[in-house]
Amino acid sequence: xxxxxxxxxxxxxxxxxxxxxxxxxxxxxxxxxxxxxxxxxxxxxxxxxxxxxxxxxxxxxxxxxxxxxxxxxxxxxxxxxxxxxxxxxxxxxxxxxxxxxxxxxxxxxxxxxxxxxxxxxxxxxxxxxxxxxxxxxxxxxxxxxxxxxxxxxxxxxxxxxxxxxxxxxxxxxxxxxxxxxxxxxxxxxxxxxxxxxxxxxxxxxxxxxxxxxxxxxxxxxxxxxxxxxxxxxxxxxxxxxxxxxxxxxxxxxxxxxxxxxxxxxxxxxxxxxxxxxxxxxxxxxxxxxxxxxxxxxxxxxxxxxxxxxxxxxxxxxxxxxxxxxxxxxxxxxxxxxxxxxxxx
Length: 344
Ligand SMILES: [Zn+2]
Ligand SMILES: [Zn+2]
What we know:
The protein is an alpha/beta fold. The chain has helices at 38-46, 96-99, 144-148, 150-163, 178-189, 202-210, 246-253, 275-280, 294-303, 322-329; strands at residues 2-8, 11-16, 26-35, 48-49, 52-53, 58-59, 63-71, 83-86, 128-132, 136-138, 170-174, 194-199, 215-218, 236-241, 256-264, 284-287, 313-318, 337-341.
């Protein structure tokens, strides 16, 4: 079977590996769709991000779906041929954070395609994947690419849970790549009244509009566009900061009303913040990292038609064209979510 392996920045190879058999409690899956994520792009373009660097070849990918081909002993509730979304979240279930229900903070997390630990955790971009049955969420009624959107959707749903009550609230989203666009969908589903989206790309802002933003603002073209929202100490109750860029966060903080909440999703390295404004407006600054139980919630919301991720899915490429897919996904002027078609 083929898999997509990153060796160093821009050194992406399609390699052949042995097909694995499922152990007890596992299933074997013929992959159908794999979404290229921002973290995959960091490995592809830069060989890592921040202090996290590739130290050995690693199979990329963690946004996948596929059809079950074999069931290991003792697996119930799944059957051969079924389409499943596969959660890349693989916590140990025994450490103190897992015991507390904070699975995304697991001390022994084996999240697909991550160079955070060494040896690296190999990813899921392979024609045949063996996964725990507990990672699989039945995706009947969805397309394979929709099912593969469950992972980034779960990230946005987790952030929305962190944000708390959104009913009737005003929300600003900075950075409208896939996570920003999905945050718009999640905030809207949670009852947000006004949603304003900010980015530097007209293409991504067009998608933001399609998924329900009331207003879209290109701060690249109009750097002063957010100033009107700073009147009377600010406008927005909640900020989803998805860009990881310091100028975006600093500008957004000026638009938050007293007691507003900053949900930081973007990972752009350390930055300095306007602490005077955070303190005097009594803002809350919270991080949001990955997800766990929100994965199944995301699949359920999509299957019920309560969240439509369609406008984000801009391109599909064949497995053998994976490298072009990564180049395309890196271009925010024309691509949002690029899927690799493993089914051929
Ligand atoms: Zn992802
Ligand atoms: Zn754990």
